[in-house]
Every structure is written in structure tokens, then in C-alpha cells.
Predict the 3D structure of the following.
Amino acid sequence: MNLSEIRKIVDSKWDTDLVPRLVDYVKLPAKSPAFDASWAAHGHLAAAIQAGLAWAQAQPIAGMTVEIVALEGRTPCLFFDIPATHGLGEDRTVLFYGHLDKQPEMSGWRDDLGPWKPVIEDGKLYGRGAADDGYALYAALTVVQAMDAQKVARPRCVGLIETCEESGSPDLPQYLAKLAPRLGEVQLVVGLDSGCGNYDQMWVTTSLRGLVGGVLTVEVLQEGVHSGSASGIVPSSFRIARKLLNRLDDVDTGRLLPAGLHAEIPAERIAQARTAGDILGDQIWKQFPWVGCNHGGDAHAHAMPTTTDPVEAILNRTWRPALSVTGAEHLPGIAAAGNVLRPKTSLKLSLRLPPTVDGDRAAAIVKQVLEADPPYGARVHFSGSHGATGWNAPPTAPWLARAAEQASQAAWGKPVAWIGEGGTIPFMSMLGEKFPSAQFLITGVLGPHSNAHGPNEFLHLDAAKRLTAAVASIVADVR
């Protein structure tokens, strides 16, 4: 296939059609159910998927069927099915995956930006969700249209776009069970919900971490009391929570302590981390918005990473567990904080797991560690705990390795790079079990400073265009 011609089609489609659609999408506060309990009543997820359906139905793709599949009480999915072309049989299927739900607003946006305020600046579309990953549906069908416009033979293509990925995809197993008979024999899974080490070449994701989430609550009193009267007698619920967290990780290094939360790192993944480390160098840690922003001066004046070794940094964020406290309750704001010993403290925990650690088993370990033998007899509960298993890609087939290399060289003029990612896409482990012989092309545009889930999130438009054309090149080579 002529990738330069494909690029012309893709670039035009992005400029005239996809960017305006994504501008509208950014305006929708389509928060995932974990962050909007009234998602059905608010209707933002419905608006996002209805907009995707209307756009898809308007695309001139021969034989395509597209529909919204909705199970009672669950977030909806969009499903499309497109027959093969130019005499290729229906025995080879490419499955595209993406999602339309979003993370919550977060604070810290630039004064002229906002989560639901689309702004295009310096080739970037700012706003929540376009890169993570509202563009997936639009890019997937653009891949098909570009190939068909060039009369390139392609296999059957199906797509599953969900709306609860940012909540851990709790509804997806039911949809996968319902739609499995319609998926056929999947040779290639194309997931566009991942990251890239830079915007200079194609990056293929080799693994994803799993996740344990839940809320740790420590209660010592039925109501708050005067701190002058009770402190020294009544233990602080916050101190107890802090002591419990010390059971999970080493406070000095951040290393997780329970052995069941660790996994051996495969030699192939270490080798790939070394190659990626050579490419990225210090950028692997300098990409983040550190306090001080200048790492050339006094180290004591600036926040620093856990390691400045690029390879160790990559392995830390892809194959080693890590604990974060992402939220808290029962702590009043500073302006309203009186001299009161609070009755309880709740902390929302997010624990990333190595790709090969079972999520449910890890959740059980965390719950047992936190709740066992509570200090001072306090009431301790780890509630809402859930585990999502990560994913480690199967061995890459020679045809996919060649196709990815050719696509990266053609679209960027540089070789393809392979790297693990620290996030979680629960669908990948589900698909790996369902289609053990399938190949996976997990990729995306979440590169340096794109800041998915955080303030000032953006979609790098040039990278998205190049990736769309590169995926078209790879789909044409499906074996």
C-alpha cells in the first residue's frame, strides 16, 4: 500500500472531520461511573456514545453495521462490524478497542484551559478525554476508510467501544460474553488507549500493570472531641491509618512489602526496557512537572525522582508494584479545621500491580494486611476493594514485528519501539484469555506532558494522524 497516499487521506479526514468531532466530545463531562454515580440520569455518557453512533452511521463504509448495545443497569457499548474486502474471507478479524468515558476534572488547569473547554494550541487539542481515548472510535473508522479509498485489501474489522474503562471496566465481561459469538476469530487486537515514549516514532505496548483500588477507613470515636481534652488519650485515626499503610510499603523507598504483590520480570521485558531507556534517557523522568522544574541546580531545592536511571525508572513504572493515596475524606479544609480530634479518617488507595499478578488475589492480600490486628482496637475496614489483572503481551509474531517496523519507518522515519506501560486496561487480560492465539497492537498518543487524568491534558494531533496511517499499514498486513 502507498502510505504517502494514505497519509493524505488520513490528514484530510482528521483536519476536516475528526478534530471538530473531538472538540465537541471534549465539551461533554462524560465522567466514568466511578466518578459520577448518577451517570445515567445526567446523560453525558449517553450523549458521547450517541454522538459516536451518529458519526459512524454517516461514514461511507460499505457493508458496515453499527449499533449501541446496552444491558440493563450497565453502561452502554458501541459495536461495529465491517466485512472484508477484495476477496479476503471472513476468517481473519481485526478487533478495535477504545472507550468514551472520562476521568474527573482535577484541579490545576491553566487559567485559559479546563477539562470541558476544548482549546487547540501548538498542534495540541487540550481538554479531558480526547487522547484517553475518545479519538479511538474516530481513528479506527478512518483507518478503514483510508484503506478502502486506496482499494487496499483488508480483513474483517469489528470494534468495541465501552463507557466504563476508567472505572476498571466492571461491565465489560458481560458485554464480552454477549458479543463473543459476533467477534469471530480475532487475529489482531488494536487498542488505541495506551501511551508513547515520545512523538518521534511508533510505540507498541508490551505490558500493562494491574490495579487494586479501595478505601481504607479507620474509626476510633463516634464523634469528634476537643483535641486539648482527648489528644494523648485517644489515638489519632490518621496516625493509625499511617501505621497501616506502613504495612504495605517501605516509607523510605516506596517498595511494596507483601511478597504476593511482586512478580519476576521476564528477560525480554528487561531487554526492551534497556532499548527504550537508550531512546528516552532522562526524558523518562524529566517529562513530569516537578516542583522547581530545574534539575541542573541544587538537588535539595527541587523534587527528585525515585531513580534517575532510565531503565530502572521504566521497570519501576511497568513491572513493579506501587502505592498511591489518591483521595481522602473526613479531613476538613484548612480554613475550617478546628482543634478537634476527628472520629475517623478515610483514604482512597490505588495500588498498581505487576502485569502477571492476579488482581483479585492481590486485592485479598491488601485487605488482609490492612484489616488484621488493628492498632488500639480501632475499627478498620478496606471497603470497595477491587482488583484488575494486568496484561503481558504474547510473543510477537514475525509478521507483526515486520509490519510495525515498516509502519513506523514510513510514518515517522524512525524505528518502532517497544515498551511496557504503567496504566491498566482490563479488557486486554480478558481478551488474552478469550483469544489466546491473537496478536496485540496496543498503542496510543499519551506521550510526554499529555498528562492523561491530570490538568492540561492534550491530544497531540500530528502524532494521532501519523498513528492512524501507521495502523492502516499494519492492518493491511494481518496474517
